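Notes on consecutive records. When two proteins share a document, each keeps its own sequence and its own token line. Never mix them. Below: protein one.
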Amino acid sequence: MSVEFEVFEGFVHSRGVGVLTTSCLESHREALVAALGSQPEREILDLTGVEQVDLTGGAVRAEVSLDRAHLEVFEQLEDPRLAIVADREVLYGLARMYQILHEGSRLTIEIFRSSEEAVEWIGSEVAAQ
């Protein structure tokens, strides 16, 4: 899978296409940090272009462990938010697992079935750019 992203003032809009894998998620995280110099405060991760999932629950737990190793990054952000758009059940389930494993952290994660809902939640004044 490739994850392409656009950086706007106040948020990042990422779109996944193809096969969802652990290495793709890691590459996306590294590319975001390289482009921005840090974790974005607000991101929409749109997975509606994902055609196949090659990711396990263990891989999701490993991703959360990486996130937790860098929690100080989220502590520096005013209102860190991640909106995940998942239109298929398997993607929704993995996103929900990621959300549950992040409970208690400063990062607020919500899962949506449509981009419109995600944009509204991220903040329409920010995402409308």
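Protein two starts on the next line and is unrelated to protein one.
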Amino acid sequence: LLGTGNFSQATIGHISTGSDIIYVNGFTLPVQEPCIGDCSGGITGGHIDVDVDTSLGGGTDSHKHEYDDANDVTYIDYFNMLSGVESIDDGRYTTDLEFVVILANADLSPGGVITIGAKEWGVVEYQEMVQQKLTEWNGLDPLVDDDGDSLVHTISEISGASQTIQITFDGRAIIDGGLHPTQTGCVNKDEAITNGRWRNGSLTTHLLDKAAIQNGNAANNVWVAQSPTDLAEGMVGGGLHANLGNATGFLYESTLFWHFESELAPEINSDYPKAPCYGDLYFEETRSIEVAGLSAELVASLWPDDAVEIQSLMDQLKNFTCDAGIFAECTKENGYEALMDQIEDLVGNDPVKFDKLRPYIERGDGSGGVTVTPTEDGMVDQTRDLSPVPGPSFNLGRRAWIDL
């Protein structure tokens, strides 16, 4: 058996009468499982910002920047919030108060997994399920999920069983597009409806008082089913959030998002903002640059006078190998640093720009991500490769001939 990997079509070689041999070009990728849970530095390639509010609309009560980095976690435990952010069970609600958990904007953060008590769902799965159940509820029958388990919970029920309410991501959530990026001020200054989405598209969790929830046909319910203009293909609905026009059932709100900025985007195109909000012009271009890093061609194009030499050095960098792997896995090696120093010497008249670019150089692999073509006016046109994006710790693996 060849095992896992990408393999070429077999080539049969005739050696002598009655003796043939088969060659297969094999490209084997080592499997590195992303960290989940308690992880040093939190999520790779960015961070999670967390906001909590207990009075619907307007500014939020608390905000924690880089929550995952500060606490070395990839999850948010609402019964054990860290960094001074309010927990659900901090004493403001009676422990026997019945509530229902609803979500909005899960399709923009599909990497999340929500745990409520003893059950676990992907955030998209839970959002669609609870929206369907509340929309179809007659106000009389038990409110239950597809397995017949109650969607109504209490603090005492959950904490008494040593359980929790939690949203978890894995360490690659940002790199793999599993967590929505935007800016703090676009989320926590007001309810910020963008493209029909609450709080600028951040992953939103609301707790609603079960006693205030009406049947699904009620004209002024305590929840609103949002209808985003950019709803992901295949989604049934855009999720639910508490109703500003009838906040009697609102209890608790959390928003999660990747707070990102791009030092590089304005260097590539002066029209690209450094820190765009979701929905802003060039938001997607800036996000793509921040995730994908730089191709070798782009690095060279930014310094056209030395483009050929820079391209050659970049090719050497991306093929540089060491015991740890290849390219960006070798940043501590003297030979790697020597190549970087040569590039920096070539752009010595602009060291500030190079300092900004270096993290992006080490994030790209020279073959994917963002590429650009200079235009006559010195600006650049961008195209984006939609193939999987290599992350900051991407390892290219090994290639070998396999003799069968």
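For the record: The chain has a mean pLDDT of 84.
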